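Sequence, structure tokens quoted for completeness.
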Amino acid sequence: MSPKRFREAVLGVFPSAALPVSSTILFMTVLRLSMLGLIVCTLFRPIPILAQTPNTTPPRPGVASPSQAAVVPAAPAPSGARILLLPRQLVAGERATLAVLDVNGRLTPGVAVVFSNGDRLKTDATGRALFVAPLTAGIIFASIEGRAGRVSSTVLTAAQADATTLEVTSVPRVASIADRFDVAGHGFCGDADANQVTIRGQQALVLASSAMALVVLPPSDSDPGPATVAISCAKHSAAPFAMTFVELALEANASPLAHGEHRPLRVAVKGSTAKLLLEARNLAPEIADLVGGNPAKQLTSGGEGNAAKFEVVGKRKGSFLISIRLLASNYHPATSAQ
């Protein structure tokens, strides 16, 4: 079964049977495995949430009314918010956009975000929030209200931020087609939707943005392999640059896993023959151990059968989650082109 055919669905099911997706991990290819031998490989992406407003306008001709249309999933509850996305750099006094995601990777509206300088805001119907950066330069922290943990961003002065031209200064050489990636530079739009990012001509989703940084999610139907990325804001455009997008697929034996048994997990890479660094993280260490520590890192083999192998050891009956993510180095597109 082809992974690219699904946006939020099963990436691959092993010969035992087709199983429903039941657990989710944000932006990661996840292997769900139980001692009974059930294996499901799933892919989750954020879904923009439309405003849930009363139906006060008549339907347009040829367009089904809400009662006739398919049921639209309810917006995620603010209580499920877990991930805060904040641009790595801000410009003092200028606009920027942050985003909040829930445990399923969905953009989440109505979430309160608090800053270390006392500012407080809530995400809008799209799960994002437009705000003005503090006037004082330095490090600022932000967190989801009521949740442990915080993220930081560096506030630059207008003199430090050369925003007169649009230029990309740092992007990953390789990124996953199912994961967000960071873009650094200057001259971007603080309003996320004012930035136009395309990959092979297809529109990508800008989750968070500032004049100095973007957080971008590839199009849902992206194919693995080399691609040209183009970014524009208002009437300004950056020079197009190259990236390689890969697809990660987990493979494992679906037979029951016994206590103390060592079980290999193979991660196949599609879209690149280069050796890539992968990180595996055990999200349920009480159920099984991940050999090599938590997290564990492995280089892929490179070549046509590009893959990496990890190993788990069963501890007790139950389901566990292993997340796999790509760790890629960044490069300066303009410098590399010279």
Summary: The first strand starts at residue 9 and ends at 13.
